[in-house]
Specification:
By secondary structure, the chain is α+β, with helices and mostly antiparallel strands. It has helices spanning 6-11, 51-54, 58-76; strands spanning 19-22, 26-30, 38-44, 81-83, 99-103. Helix content is 25%, strand content 21%. It starts with 5 loop residues before the first helix and ends in an 11-residue tail after the last strand.
């Protein structure tokens, strides 16, 4: 864990978050500034800078993607984007690997425009 990383602080429960999933390796929680009807972040609990570094642990990367799919199935009927920003110019603002589950379809049948 990195002391000045907001996602590490969320993982350690130092900062509250609306958690939707947690196990020994992965945590998922709602984005505080959602950009879609469904906007959930999936993070490995282990601090790694970005998805490229996360790929060095293929099992953990696969688990992050698998959990994202399970969450999207429950929250958005399985129709979603899974977005990883890598680098500041690509929009990464927190340098702890995280996938954004984004969907404008919700399981209640409502579809919203981005």
């Amino acid at each position: 864990m990195t002391a000045n990383c907001i996602f590490c602080q969320i993982v350690c429960k130092q900062i509250p978050a609306k958690v939707v999933y947690e196990d020994e390796d992965v945590m998922a929680f709602h984005d505080v500034n959602p950009e879609a009807a469904v906007h959930i972040l999936v993070v490995p609990k282990k601090h790694v800078k970005n998805v490229v570094e996360l790929a060095d642990d293929e099992k953990l990367l696969a688990k992050v993607v698998r959990i994202a799919g399970q969450i999207a199935k429950k929250t958005a009927g399985g129709e979603f984007k899974l977005l990883f920003n890598t680098g500041e110019s690509a929009g990464q603002s927190v340098f702890h690997a995280h996938g954004h589950i984004l969907s404008n379809k919700t399981n209640d049948g409502e579809v919203n425009a981005i």
